[in-house]
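Why should sequence recovery work at all? Because a backbone constrains its sequence more than one might expect. Tight turns favour small or flexible residues, buried strands favour hydrophobic ones, and helices have their own preferences. The token representation captures these environments compactly. In the example below, the structure is given first.
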């Protein structure tokens, strides 16, 4: 048994456990077990019933406001179990400070984190706070709304109905994010060549409507991962990364990110994958497992999310991961999701849209700039030489690969 983010051991009862009570109440809750040393060995408490009263008195006297908790005595080993529930009246302070968990340690929350806790305690999101700049224009948003919603003009009444404006406080941060100009960070995009040392393109879209930034980023995606192939009299669009997956991943990065930190949403475009990283970890109350399953969504920015949905920038709120996975349903390579304390990264691999699974297996070992022989390819796949040769010929006919040279010197590379 080891300590975790939500489990802490205390050999004896000292005031240090009160910091962890504050941390658990401020975030996702947790358990403190008394009578257990740091290595997880149960040594017990001499008088568990008296210990419970001592713990209760310390919490009631030192933590403000009063957190929800339960105490239980485990008779067989004379340990005491304190269960602290996530609180609604944040922040929960010990000696005037709010605390948080950092892996298995408990540390004081910084000023930014404290301000977030205060907003949570008031059930207010950052996006709902009054905008710093009240002199805003919405030409891009208005054009999108006319096309997708069918409004005649973006009047104050419409902005009020979209929760972007109130008579008392004016525009909020969500409105500022959607305005033609703002002071928020944007999307930083880099496109790489054969290695990370070769930067083919670098651009940052910022200080403009997040809707416009999303569309500009999509144009760079299309220029990188889409092309047309002529088959007879028809032109067929090929997407090396499904557009619905890229759009969903980037739109969700903007909807779910924290906007109170000066950090860009980062998009890295490689030859074999795209990586989209957004500032801010999971919303409090949503576990990593629930996030990865995609069956539960807690919006960090519900006003912004509702705008994206109504403008058809995302399909259905809360189904982003499910839709991304669905776009890769028939692909050997699958998307990956990396969750950290202060960021989330979505990795979208390149696929070959109309290749069979065997052809995709061969395709994955090829390179765009380094030609390979049949022997080199066969050594990396579970097929024999004759099958590999046949697959390469079919892929060449589909215009996915190029055949270089003749005879024994023949090599293959991705087009």
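From this structural description, the recovered sequence reads:
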């Amino acid at each position: 048994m080891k300590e975790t983010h939500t489990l802490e051991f205390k050999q004896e009862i000292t005031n240090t456990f009160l910091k962890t009570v504050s941390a658990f109440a401020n975030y996702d809750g947790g358990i403190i077990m008394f009578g257990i040393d740091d290595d997880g060995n149960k040594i017990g408490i001499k008088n568990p019933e008296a210990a419970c009263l001592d713990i209760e008195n310390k919490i009631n006297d030192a933590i403000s406001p009063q957190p929800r908790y339960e105490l239980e005595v485990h008779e067989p080993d004379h340990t005491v179990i304190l269960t602290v529930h996530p609180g609604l009246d944040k922040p929960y302070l010990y000696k005037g400070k709010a605390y948080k968990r950092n892996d298995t340690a408990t540390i004081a929350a910084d000023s930014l984190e404290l301000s977030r806790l205060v907003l949570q305690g008031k059930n207010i999101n950052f996006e709902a706070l009054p905008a710093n700049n009240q002199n805003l224009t919405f030409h891009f948003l208005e054009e999108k709304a006319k096309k997708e919603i069918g409004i005649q003009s973006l009047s104050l009444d419409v902005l009020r109905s979209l929760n972007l404006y109130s008579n008392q406080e004016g525009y909020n941060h969500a409105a500022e994010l959607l305005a033609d100009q703002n002071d928020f960070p944007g999307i930083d995009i880099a496109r790489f060549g054969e290695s990370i040392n070769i930067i083919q393109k670098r651009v940052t879209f910022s200080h403009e409507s997040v809707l416009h930034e999303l569309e500009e980023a999509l144009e760079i995606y299309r220029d990188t991962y889409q092309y047309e192939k002529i088959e007879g009299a028809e032109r067929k669009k090929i997407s090396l990364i499904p557009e619905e997956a890229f759009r969903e991943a980037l739109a969700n990065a903007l909807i779910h990110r924290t906007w109170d930190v000066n950090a860009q949403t980062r998009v890295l475009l490689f030859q074999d994958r795209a990586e989209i990283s957004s500032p801010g970890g999971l919303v409090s109350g949503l576990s990593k497992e629930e996030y990865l399953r995609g069956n539960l969504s807690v919006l960090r920015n519900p006003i912004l999310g509702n705008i994206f949905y109504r403008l058809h920038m995302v399909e259905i709120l809360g189904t982003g991961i499910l839709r991304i996975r669905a776009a890769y349903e028939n692909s050997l390579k699958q998307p990956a999701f990396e969750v950290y304390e202060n960021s989330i990264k979505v990795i979208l691999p390149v696929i070959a849209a109309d290749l069979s699974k065997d052809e995709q297996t061969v395709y994955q070992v090829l390179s765009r700039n380094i030609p390979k022989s049949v022997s080199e390819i066969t050594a990396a796949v579970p097929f024999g030489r004759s099958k590999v040769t046949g697959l390469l010929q079919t892929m060449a006919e589909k215009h996915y690969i190029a055949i270089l040279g003749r005879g024994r010197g023949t090599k293959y590379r991705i087009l």
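A few observations help interpret the result. The mean pLDDT is 91.
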